[in-house]
Structures are given as structure tokens and as C-alpha cells.
User: What shape does this take?
Amino acid sequence: MSLFASIRGYISTAFRWQAGRQNNGYEKMLLFTARWPLPFDSYLIRYPDGSEIHPHTDPVQLGRHFRLNIVLKPPKSGGEFVCANPIFASKRIKFFRPDLCEHSVTRVKGGTRYVFSLGWMYGRNIS
Assistant: This one.
């Protein structure tokens, strides 16, 4: 893909709410992304009341996928991040390998959950 096509693609999708890949009611807004020198993306993710993400992994073809999620605003209840084996997890900070660790978000009840999510790819497929 050419640099021009990459920039045009970014401009057409950045800073706009889009349905999440899991089709479970959450929405994501692309903030920034780059392919070089380290491929990364960053999103604001909105989980409205009743949304959830079922358990899954995010396989990659090349490299290791890392993701840092920071809960900016929790809902009144639910919306808990569940991960089989996070690298680090606290109430608001979640650092994990989505390519290796099954992860999910429980159903949001009462309010909206907002998360800043930063992901990057590194190296080769070495667990």
C-alpha cells in the first residue's frame, strides 16, 4: 500500500465512531496509527449499556501483539475485562497479549464504559 493510500485511509476512518469487530454493541474511534517504525494503533472504545465482548483471541500472522487498555470511565456495573493470563492488570490498567490470551468484557450494566486502547506489533512469532 502506498503512503498516499495509507494517509487517505486514515483520514477516512480517524476520529469517527465505528462498530467494533466483535459486533456486540461496542464502538471504536481510531485516534492514531502508523506502520513504521513500530506498527501501532490507538483507539477510544465506547461500551454502551448492554454491550459486551465474548471470549476470543486476536491471532496475527507475523510478530507479537501487545495491547495496553486504560479504563477512562467505568460503568455503574459490569464491563469487567477478563483475561486468562495478562502481563499486568489493575482496576483500570490492563496490559496483555491479545494474540495469545483469551480475553473478553462482561456485559455493561448502567452507564457507558470508555477505554483508551494502545496496541502494537513487535518482532517475530515467539511466545
Summary: The helical segments are 3-13.
